[in-house]
Design goal:
The chain has one domain. By secondary structure, it is mainly α. The chain has a two-stranded antiparallel ribbon with strand order 1-2. The radius of gyration is 23 Å and the shape is flat. It is built from eleven helices and two strands.
């Protein structure tokens, strides 16, 4: 089984997106998520897709890496698309494209399914481009901690929370790779994960979970020992070698994402004849 997944991995580079302040990129990611859900029709999605493609070009991230990042949600995209094809009818009185037995497919249903799948693709690809692919885990931790620093005044452990989130994000590809190695070892001993009923295949995964949990706890222990050896004592009194400083390009990036959202709203308003109502 191939677990060649790029989600959560940092791709080294020196593009415009790589050089942005991590705080700005976190804010841009949140705004981009809002923008994705603001798109309501074909024209809005065309603008959003063009913007995401432009970000991919600017980031210099290879297309195959973006495609690898979509692997974990392929089933969700297919399932969501199929459901919308058969359940969405569009405007009242619309004529079906296919009407056979219990299956009725409308043109609006097909278009709606395509745009919803595209929404999932843009959501994952766009946020990955802005954040995980172009931001190191250390910079992400610093940016998240600085953004949440006002909460420290009410005794919220901001530094520990930021570190926990970053470590979890960093170890997603590691655990996926470890799962692939364990499954390959099990298959070499005669195990099968793709044959039999769904219950049988689920039971076959139990021998994978035990060594995976053991490996996870071992990695966590090794990480804790490494942090103690480096005299890590939490965020209190810690200094930073690289102090974050926002520049004009960081503010410009946030403004561009805001303008994208405004453009999507205007497109929804003035091209509502093509709106799909989702």
């Amino acid at each position: 089984m191939n677990f060649d997944v790029a989600f959560g991995q940092y791709c080294e580079g020196d593009s415009i997106l790589h050089r942005l302040d991590p705080r700005a990129k976190i804010i841009m990611s949140l705004l981009y998520i809002v923008d994705v859900f603001l798109a309501k029709n074909v024209f809005a999605f065309a603008l959003l897709t063009s913007f995401t493609v432009a970000m991919a070009v600017l980031s210099r991230i290879k297309p195959r890496i973006l495609l690898r990042g979509l692997k974990p949600v392929i089933f969700i995209m297919i399932f969501t698309g199929v459901i919308n094809v058969f359940w969405y009818r569009g405007a009242e009185g619309a004529k079906p494209l296919v009407d056979w037995w219990i299956f009725t497919i409308y043109p609006a249903g097909i278009l709606n399914a395509v745009l919803i799948v595209l929404r999932v693709v843009l959501l994952i690809a766009g946020t990955s481009l802005i954040l995980t692919y172009t931001t190191t885990p250390l910079a992400l931790t610093d940016g998240l901690e600085r953004l949440l620093s006002p909460l420290a005044k009410i005794k919220v452990p901001v530094h520990e929370f930021s570190l926990m989130m970053t470590i979890a994000l960093r170890f997603i590809p590691t655990l996926i790779e470890e799962t692939g190695k364990i499954m390959d070892a099990q298959k070499a001993r005669g195990a099968s994960f793709s044959e039999g009923s769904l219950v049988k295949r689920a039971k076959a995964l139990i021998p994978v979970l035990v060594p995976l949990f053991a490996s996870s706890f071992r990695r966590a222990d090794e990480l804790a020992v490494a942090m103690e050896c480096r005299c890590y004592r939490g965020g209190k009194g810690r200094t930073r070698m690289n102090v974050l400083k926002a520049t004009f390009k960081d503010f410009a990036g946030v403004i561009v994402i805001i303008l994208l959202g405004v453009s999507l709203v205007l497109l929804n308003k003035y091209t509502d004849a093509f709106a799909l109502g989702f």
